[in-house]
Amino acid sequence: MTNATGDTSAFANAIETDYRNRSATNAMQSAAFVRYARLGLPNRRVEGWKWSDFNAALRGPAAANDAAAPETIPPSPFAALEPLEIQIVDGRVLSPDAAKLDGFEFGVIEPGGSDPDFDGHSLVALNIALTRRAFGYRVEKGANIERPILIRHINTKPGHVFSQVLGRGDEGSRSTIIETFEGRAVFHSAVHHLSVYRNAELSRYVLNDTDAGAVTHGFFGAMVGEGARFRQTSLSTGGRLCRHETHLLYPAAGGFSDVASAALVAGDRHSDFTTQVRFRAPGGEARQLHKGVASGKARNVFQGKFHVERAAQKTDAKMTANALLLSEGAEANHKPELEIYADDVECAHGSTVGALDDDALFYLRQRGLSASAARALLIEAFAGEVVDSIDNEGVRNVFATRVAAWLEDQQ
């Protein structure tokens, strides 16, 4: 994936070789590869990427990972929820053996294209060009799918991997999607396009738990229809560079979204949550909350933007990002933005970066807690605002357990 001279030519050559060796490439994929070749990989000179440089991540030496690939896939921490589990292993979609769920259609399909708004996104273009097969799903009109749908991205060997998920929640439907990123050091590009139609409700939960050498780009784009309600909660422990983008579009009136994220990064790991919500119709609502905790020389990046077009009167959107730095070498980079062209809106954003409160630590120590236990309790409470907001008890417990395990590793 990288070469000894420290540039990305080896990666670029491997990508081009992969593309040229395809037995069949359609016109859409050919056009996408041309866009990628013209744009190149994101670098620090590109607005929105100055804190997450994929060129640098691919240029550095890959983290050592001598562990053998597992002969069997370990069970998911969400297994107790009895989800319908779909595994995408090294980019290959494995069809589940489970019987079809009433009101839920799914299968392995041809990869799809992108919204014209994202034609200038080089990693999305690369994903379209190199994804072989995609996982597609549809929640039928009026269906209430109580069983969670678990989509596991599992990487077992070094290299580059491309995966794609294409979904829709039809009018009046209800469903829960869980998406996990797991495994070894790899460059992984994952694109998930979703349409949530009129009065539908869909909750998506994302857990990024890759190893320290992983370079991950997750791109999620969703259309939030008239009166639709979309909720998303994400937790990431980072990697060499792990960036999860969320792009929401409100083309019709009365859509609602609640997007929350938490990053827990240690050592030299890097987590980036970047979001953009674009309002094109009146009466849209959005709530966004980010919590980042960094120790060692780790970096937590948050970029959020509300774009309100002139027609989107009565928009109500609020964004908050808070970071907690546990060491002098840790970093937090926040960029909250409002771009508003309507004149009858309620939009706000706020951002804070700080350290643990010495008075709170002293208070807890006075009540018999050790220094490490007091620190862990305060960190857990800080990140817990995101975890506690999860409506699904089973998912909430899994996220809370992962937070507790991360805190245990910091002792």
Q: How is this structure best summarized?
A:
This protein is of the alpha/beta class and 411 residues long. The protein is 20% helix and 40% strand.
How would you explain this protein's 3D organization?
There is one protein chain. With 411 residues, the chain is an alpha/beta fold. The chain has a domain at 78-357. The chain has 7 helices and 19 strands. The protein has helices spanning 9-20, 27-39, 54-59, 122-130, 358-366, 371-388, 393-409, and strands at 84-89, 92-94, 104-109, 134-139, 149-155, 160-169, 174-183, 187-196, 201-210, 215-224, 229-236, 241-250, 256-265, 270-279, 285-294, 299-308, 316-325, 331-340, 346-354. It has a 10-stranded mixed sheet, with helices on one face. Strands 3-4-6-8-10-12-14-16-18 form a 9-stranded mixed sheet. α2 runs antiparallel to α4 and α6 packs antiparallel against α7 (393-409). The longest helix is centred in the C-terminal third of the chain and has 18 residues, at 371-388. It is globular and about 65 Å long. The two termini are 34 Å apart. Mean pLDDT is 91; it is low at 1-7.
